[in-house]
User: Fold this.
Amino acid sequence: MKVELKDLSETRKQLVVAFEAAEVDQEINKVTGEFVSQARIPGFRPGKAPVSVIRKRFEKEIAQELRQSMVARAYRDSTKEKGLEVLSVVDAAEPTILAGAPVEVTITVDIQPKFDLPDYKGLPVKAGDTTVTDAEVEQLIENIRRERAEFKTVEREAQVGDYVKFGFEGTIDGQKIAELVPDRPIFGTMPQTWEEAGSEEGLLPGAGKHVVGLKAGDSKPGDITFPADFNVPALAGKTGNYTFTVQEVRERVLPALDEAFLKAQGAATVEELRERVRGSIKQQKEGNDRAERRRQAADALAAKVEFPIPEVLIDNETDVLLHQLVEQNLRRGIPQDELEKNKEQLYATARQAAVGRTKVRMLLLRVAEAEKLQVSRDDINHAIYREAMRSGSKPEKVVKELEKSRDRLTYFQQNILLDKALDFLVGAASVTPA
Assistant:
């Protein structure tokens, strides 16, 4: 056997393995012998049927098994001879094998890059400010009251914060927007919709500003400029000329801080509510600070070393991120057909992020190995429950989804290990106080 190693890139290699005719015949005899010993042929005792009968009876099966056997042998012996630490087999074409003739097997693999793990202790990390102010507490209580507010119809001009029912019709350069985007006419003409007066959000970005000061029956012209990245490409970056007609104005009436409101929030007194809210804000700030420290530690480690990243790992991470991007956009209400139109952009975004993510993952795996970190059964159970809470599913459903694919389960367990490695980095980091 002769092995030729070709460098396709720093991490992608091609192995051309040449077997002599004698080696091929040896493999043919080995595979055929296995069929002889296992085959059950009427009229012959087990293992005693003539080779010629076996070859004729199982010609296709022997040929398939032989091709697979030669490829497996080529992979096993060539990677051992060349000392390759293979991450993944990219391609392995099954050859045509004939008795008494040499054969060549070509295998393409991605290998683990060689690099020295840099010093990962004492990474610079800046702590965030997790102090909770009285103003933040009062603002959150105000927000809770606003979420539970009632809306009372009023006969006056709309004020900021009111809830307004209005209709609109728009044009761009004199042409009706509903005609420009017939598949999305709601951005051109809407008989009625509800928006918060003064809000920058909503169906039309900024439409809420134009109804401030109008009462039921009033109309007013106004311009809306769509963002450059608006999810309707035909409108992105353009300015529409609209007419807004108010049909009803409702005033937001906040609930009083009375016993009923406090009970609904699980508090007996206003002071207890403030303390509960303060604790909630504190918890959120500490969670954000933890996430930011983890990001800083990962970035600092990645900046310490450069190495080639195997394409197969980037491809795998791109698939994961692309799936997440699609899910996020669907949750934001972007239609499936719009995502299909922008699939190349989504892929490019995922691919770009995957390069950095893959590098960090490889480094964290090396940290986990160096620190002998392991994933326990409790770690897996906790991760399953967190995923169930995140996705709104039952833990049993999460487990069933993981069991559908060994790769998915391996990735899930690897993420747990990476989290532990990242927590280790943060714990060993040099922290600058806020």
The CA atoms of residues 64 and 374 lie 41 Å apart. The chain is about 50% helix and 20% strand. The chain has a mean pLDDT of 92.
